[in-house]
Amino acid sequence: MKKKILAIVMSVVLVFGIVCAFTACGDDKQDDGQKIVSDMEYIKEKGTMVIGITEYAPMNFKAEDGSWTGFDTEFAEAVCEKLGVKAEFFVLSDWDQKVNELNSKAIDVVWNGMTITDELKQSMSITDPYVVNAQVIVCKAENAEKYNSLDAIKDAKIAVETGSAGEDCVEGFANVTAVAAQSDALLEVESGAADVCVIDITMANAMTGKGTSYADLTKTASLNEEQYGIGCRKDSDTCDEINKVIDELMADGTLDKLADKYELTLVK
Amino acid sequence: MVVVSEVFKSLFEGFGVSLEIFALTLLFAIPLGLVISFGSMSKFKPLKYFVKFIVWIIRGTPLMLQLIIIFYGPGLLATWAANSGSANPAILWMSSWQVMDRFLAVIVSFVINYACYFSEIFRGGIEGIPKGQYEAGQVLGMTKTQTFFKVVLMQVVKRIIPPMSNEIITLVKDTSLARVISVYELIWAGQTFIKSSGILWPLLATGIFYLAFNGILTIVFGKIEKKLDYYKN
Amino acid sequence: MSILEVKDLKKSFGKTEVLKGVSFELNEGEVLSIIGSSGSGKTTILRCINQLETADSGYISVDGVVFFDGNQHKENAAEKRKRQLLVGLVFQEFHLFPQYNVLDNVTLAAKLLAKERADYKENKKEIFADIESKAKEILAKVGLSEKLGNYPCELSGGQKQRVSIARALMLEPKILFFDEPTSALDPELTGEILKVIKSLAEDKVTMVIVTHEMSFAKAVSSKVIFMDNGVIEEAGTPEEVFDNPKSERTKAFISKFDD
Question: What ipTM did this prediction achieve?
Fold first, then answer.
């Protein structure tokens, strides 16, 4: 009998919990009474800004001593210093989860050479563009003549990073494989699994050609111009705050120095 | 160039995390699985069907999805609740939810998932014991607890060792799913070198770790089976 | 006073009425055989008395202790267990514990029971030694002294059934019940079991035996009941039931075993 009562109580508690969780939505909006903390205040209260990155030269990569470096790394550190918070870099395993990572507050910004697209603008607030980028075709050097335009790769086996701007360029093509990262797309070409890949020009510059890990790969045509921005939670004030700091860093020449160091082109 | 010792240092680091996930999952999923199996055999129908429903959901959806929901879910609901501007106390409370630690989310998901699988193995093992064993215990004046622990349990253990060893070996390999919510484990440790240096062999080398560990487990389970071989059910 | 009293016992499984009002009594030291075709309700009587089934109505008492009273029946695990120790049951399929050897099968219940004694902690060693020597004595009686360390899977059917009898005897029940103790055995092995039961009868152990062994029932019993279709068709001494059956049904049943 005792067991039965326990079982009933357990069931009631569980059902009650579920009902509480799912009902009671849709009450009228009522703003007063509750203190609203803005996103920037939330980050400042914590004292650290968690910055979602992937390992991606020349934006974020590891130096000889194992510490993070790169254009975005130094840029983010400069911005955080002005905002008075600590920069904490967190490596995402899956670029596709970036919106979930932001919205669940697991990270605070996505700052990793992120190409601004209309699609992304719908799910996050993106700062003013800071670096110009292009999507380029990368293939083995001996095939450079063959794959020199968007038309030329229509029937080729193409590797792209899932959810990337490169993927948008080749939308609708027959043989497109989406892989987890841009570096994986390079590996696809290197291993012969794909004929070409479409990746960021910054990445292609850093990782292909003589003296790199992919010496026999080369970039051919640029497919479209695009710009990098920093992703913040949708409608958050963090985006405006970062924009103000970017203007300051543009004005005092900090960004110019960084762009020279990493061979990038700033948006002016 | 990447030094071999450096690669293995990273791989061992990743393997350590994989082992932690493995050990903590076993530690909590086995007792929880036993509790769930009792629930699914309960004579109280609502509890029985509720437990069976939960087990169906967990076994019927990919562990990868469960990881994503358990880690991102609370934070996403909090954002939604905060944006809804509702004054309902339940929603206000929900808006204070936060994502938990990534590693904790992995353990929670793995424990729930594996406890459900284990519970079905336990249920099969317990229900497979002939009714006569319980009746023999009863007519010899043993309490139900004594009958379970002194008579039935050992026979259940013998029955469930083969399916459990299967499931546990799968668990070793499933630890690689932790990567989905960016928990650094063995496979990721191997993949890092593809991204940073364009070399593939560290990823392939992770296979050695899985094989070696599962080899040890196979031997251990073989030993246990042999030890219980002195009698037949 | 009779040691076993069963009055108007009724039991149905779903819509099937298995016992339609069964009454009988048994005195201390007597041996009762219950015969009848399968499905006649013999085994159900045993299971009701041994508390493996709960009857629908009627009355059961053993040694003056009320086991079941349809009018005021209440379930209490502790009392039920106390009553359980007054009776012992030997199953058709033995139901030995496969993971224990012969000696442990016989001593397990007694050792668990000993834990409830007030002096258990101080005298554990002596108590266990007593239990083991008693178990060895009983096992010697059923002819299994050589098999103490063997596991059930290493024994023949007849040996298994003898262990199961020893296991039941160990707790010194007031009445020992046998549910078709030879039915699961090869014909050439039944003899050794019947011999053991016979020697128990000579020791004046009160027994109730459900059996298909007619000549054995006739030889060992002081009372015989013929069950048919949930009722007692005929009851009496072995001579009355086997040699001069009054009922036509009894006659028909017994004649089947005459060859």
Answer: 0.91
